[in-house]
Amino acid sequence: MRLAGKAGIVVGAGQTPGETIGNGRAAAILFAREGAKVLLVDRDLASAKETAGMIEAEGGTVACAEGDWTRAADCKAYADACVEAWGRIDFLQNNVGIGAGDASPERLTEEVFDRILQVNLKGCLLSCQAVVPVMRQQQSGSIVNISSLAAVASTPLTAYKISKLGMNALGQSLAMSNARHGIRVNTIMPGLMDTPMAIEGIVQERGLPREQVREQRNRQVPLRGKMGTGWDVGYASLFLHSDEAGFITGAVLPVDGGQGARVG
After folding, report:
1. pLDDT of residue 188
2. Which DSSP letter does residue 121 get?
């Protein structure tokens, strides 16, 4: 019951169809298991409702809202929905990202660059802006943004890297501008994860068997030679939202099995 008495929002609480669990769904389930009331937000409402069904089956308290976080009005609507349901917003988990069509700087198109920056970075800003006034009024709150190790490691995905590096900077700026209000803002950088978004995207793009994709990615991870899962990101998020992390803000935490240490 590490989040007992708390209520909050998980944006990106649905997931890409696949064999494993995504970061957003895993986090939402863990928060509910630990006593939180959770508002699940996703552009795909049906997928959010699937997550809700899993939480309800375990006796958790949950509600759903459809929303596109690239629209300020949608962000305000889901912030308002959380307050209307439970009277407060104790935490915000931002777990949305895309990378389709990305390329090297020489080949990246203007349209793809704009789209990835809009979804990954602008959406994160708008989502945070929607909850900060409520958290300031409460004089408390926790925000966790899910970035990527790609922010600091070499990758051919130019726009994705820039957007995630921007999320790291955004989190630190928000942490400093809201520290006196008791609001903590932290960022997680997942490394290579065995999630549907990662695996299914590569399978479709390259036409490779899933097990071959997994084997190639596993070889790059120092810790036990195996990718992480959505649960690893979820547990790190749970800690950062809990009172145990009450003196942590502005942090950028790699959850990567040591990959960041390997690349330097």
Report:
1. 98
2. I
DSSP codes, 30-46: HHHHTT-EEEEEESSHH
Per the annotation, the verdict on 160 as an active-site residue is yes
Helix ranges, the chain (H): 23-33, 45-57, 72-86, 110-117, 123-138, 158-178, 196-206, 210-218, 230-241, 259-263
The tokens for 239 are 């800690």
Query: Collapsing DSSP states into helix, strand and coil, what is residue 125?
Result: helix
Q: How far apart are CA 191 and CA 145, in angstroms?
A: 14
Report the b/e string of 195-218 with b at 16+ CB within 10 A.
bbbbbbbbbeeeeeeeeebbeebe
User: What letter does residue 258 receive in the DSSP assignment?
Assistant: T
- For 71-117, what is each residue's pLDDT tens digit? 999 999 999 999 999 999 999 999 999 998 999 999 999 999 999 99
Q: Which of 52, 160, 213, 254 is catalytic?
A: 160
How many CA atoms within 13 Å lie on the side-chain side of 227?
Answer: 19
The CATH architecture annotation of domain 7-193+229-249 reads: 3-Layer(aba) Sandwich (3.40)
Single pTM value for the model? 0.96
Determine the residue type at 239: F
